[in-house]
Amino acid sequence: xxxxxxxxxxxxxxxxxxxxxxxxxxxxxxxxxxxxxxxxxxxxxxxxxxxxxxxxxxxxxxxxxxxxxxxxxxxxxxxxxxxxxxxxxxxxxxxxxxxxxxxxxxxxxxxxxxxxxxxxxxxxxxxxxxxxxxxxxxxxxxxxxxxxxxxxxxxxxxxxxxxxxxxxxxxxxxxxxxxxxxxxxxxxxxxxxxxxxxxxxxxxxxxxxxxxxxxxxxxxxxxxxxxxxxxxxxxxxxxxxxxxxxxxxxxxxxxxxx
Amino acid sequence: xxxxxxxxxxxxxxxxxxxxxxxxxxxxxxxxxxxxxxxxxxxxxxxxxxxxxxxxxxxxxxxxxxxxxxxxxxxxxxxxxxxxxxxxxxxxxxxxxxxxxxxxxxxxxxxxxxxxxxxxxxxxxxxxxxxxxxxxxxxxxxxxxxxxxxxxxxxxxxxxxxxxxxxxxxxxxxxxxxxxxxxxxxxxxxxxxxxxxxxxxxxxxxxxxxxxxxxxxxxxxxxxxxxxxxxxxxxxxxxxxxxxxxxxxxxxxxxxxxxxxxxxxxxxxxxxxxxxxxxxxxxxxxxxxxxxxxxxxxxxxxxxxxxxxxxxxxxxxxxx
Lengths: 258, 320
Hints:
The structure holds 2 protein chains of 2 kinds. Chain A contains 10 helices and no strands. By secondary structure, chain A is an all-alpha fold. Chain A is globular, with a radius of gyration of 20 Å. Chains A and B meet through helix 1 and helix 4 of A and helix 2, helix 3 and helix 5 of B.
């Protein structure tokens, strides 16, 4: 456990010093500019605009940190072979991978939570409104999504043979994972059995990122999140991350370092 | 498999084959071919070979970075996958690369913590290692500002942080300037005195001569020979000598069996001879010698003799 913490701490420091927090500043600037422009154009819905834009900004900044971190660390660890010296140490490859996951996730969480606090502050101070209760739930769901995507991205890093490949796989999966609703819709249509089977496989393999999406429903008065929904989301995220992590671990164990 | 307890590395019948190219027309490269080798505890062993001879492949298999096609490796009496075995090994890769965002000290702290050190023990060990690799002053600077020699020293530092019984280095002198080279060599000599087993993969003959007890010569993925350095240095390996003589004396050496060329200003290159034979020849011919220097080292001549028969430009890999 101590070794996992050491890898996580090392990764965290590496990413923070690679200026990943600038993404937070960038997101804040872009978000503020957009929010200002749209609030001027809108009539009386300033808080809602701040909230909607803010939630998109939180997800966007988290994903940007993930993608850039994957690219930066792939270059250091695999292209420049910094991983060699670490794996020669008394640490298992599973511990190494788990440490990386926690290191990545901590940085992404910092950015997402930082952005969330900024939005909440903006809604309260500038919009003179209240932060909806579901905003907290939505942020936690977003963090769970980020955890799943971190595990997925790092697994692609363990499998991939190039930085571009890792980034593209991850981006493609994020895109498809958010479009899982369309796959569901297709499955309900009249299609050839072979196509349906293929779609079911795709549905099973892709992360259902819509399960973590609360941002569109934050102002829905009928939405009540019960313990059952929380359990479902947590269980799905844990199970999916666990399986993906195992795949990444097995690949890292079997990977030959030429 | 049982091995003598004084073996640091025991390699038996190790082979590695790479398949490249298209699946229907693969190119098979034999990087290592039936390598059998023992390295004893507390000795300094040098694995010599041309580029592509299979030295790095051997090290990568020893460290578990590559899986062998055939054969087995035992390190410190166990398997490299055992955490306890890896805890006793230090590894320095060729041109080590570190995250540029950390200081030298932070890197050593990280690698030390992977060895299980923590708190004041870790700090104390880091200080010790920084002192040993002469990096105490620059330890709080970011690695991005380090020279190649400093990086190499931090590299050796991270390899030593766990107080290894066995130190494996892949081309440790690569890219070093003469000062860095001497410092690195001195570190190896110190480590040897402290009883650390050294396994050096190199093609720098001077390093081998001064540091190693035994050498193995790898060529085309095959181990050509294993010999002790002292035996090689005392052997009658023929090297070329340059003899400075007066121009009138130079003619006395003309036609001798060893003479290769005579310079106009009175220098003579004597080839294919040992030192004693050269001195005897000069004595017999009553040549006044102003100076005598070998044109290559005994180790170099021994190495070249060992791999003779194949072009040095050849990659050394047997492929089909």
